[in-house]
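Support case: pyridoxal-5'-phosphate complex. Customer-provided input:
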Amino acid sequence: MKLAERMNRIGVESAFEVLVRARQLERQGKSVIHLEIGEPDFPTPAHIIEAAKHALDEGYTHYGPTQGLPELREAVAAYICRTRGIRVGPEHVAVTPGGKPIIFFPMLALIEPGDEVIYPNPGFPIYESMIRFSGGVPVPIPLVEERGFSFDLDLLRKRLSPKTKLVVLNSPQNPTGGLIPPEDIHAIADLVRDRDLMVLSDEIYSRIYYGEPPVSIASLPGMLEKTIILDGFSKTYAMTGWRMGYGVMPEWLVEAVNKLMVNSNSCTASFTQRAGIAALNGPQQAVDAMVAEFRRRRDAFCAGLNQVPGFRCALPGGAFYAFANITGTGMGSKPLADHLLYEGGVSCLSGGAFGEFGEGYIRFSYANSYENLMEAVARIKTAVANRVPVGSR
Ligand code: PLP
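Agent response - structure generated as follows:
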């Protein structure tokens, strides 16, 4: 049986593939430090777990409304109003199993074959995968290391066309840890405001930043009606396995997302949504403590990477990724990532897995203990010193 043609156009996420390879090595008795997967290594805060248990006891074990429980949508709307400085209501919120469906569903709902979609490169691989899957034309905009991994704005200006249907922004960013500075967000809004397009603003790392807070493009004049905010619980509350996220968007698009939800998931699990209310409305100390610990690790880990001959690592402003420029080693990203895994016992991702402009970089997730990160730096130094020079293979 032949698969449908559209399956040739869908991609994968290499973090999950590398994790499988790393686990295989571990089964063979090799020690591996995991710096590949993008999930906080902290437990979900106890009061959120308690709320889920309580919800199970209360009988939240049945189908709920496709769009999400009204009380959770109220909580999300209030949270988005206070964190983004905008006015939205529960009618603008679609709750989904994880943040990812807020890439999948709006793209399926909006993109016609031949429509162009602008997106960051290097960037979260699901953007390009879903643009292609929905028949769109991917238009990558390189992120520039010298600009703190923000867009090349001149190129963005040139690449916008009458066919541009969607512009994807992500700040703080995966894989670079970069933030789009406020002045760039303003410039991007000025470029797109009068165009017939939508902006997908992926703000899944909105609470994980180390300096100036990220600015949501939705908060700029005229942009609310054109913006889909993607956010969720996975990163902020260390809830990746709970599968809970949401989108905030104009009502006409919520309706379309509802149709895709009812055809795929029916609804997001009811008891986890009750826990989501506890996450948003309850104490936030666990989030602050997690971010403080990420900052401590970031400072030490990036300083360590900068001492590896051939490595250069800018200090990331957000998320929990270090995106090291490794061109000075003379090795390509993929061979070096493989070498670090198989010879060094450090599992990490080739920058090329995030798009062509990620070549020359390696992504390390510092969602691992301080001790393991320091050990990883020592292992990377040894592995890089023992690499086989190019040309002598
Ligand atoms: N957007 C970005 C940039 C991400 O890095 C991720 C997860 O890695 C997601 C969205 C998806 O998050 P979730 O696990 O909630 O689906």
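The mean pLDDT is 96.

Case will auto-close in a few days if no follow-up is received.
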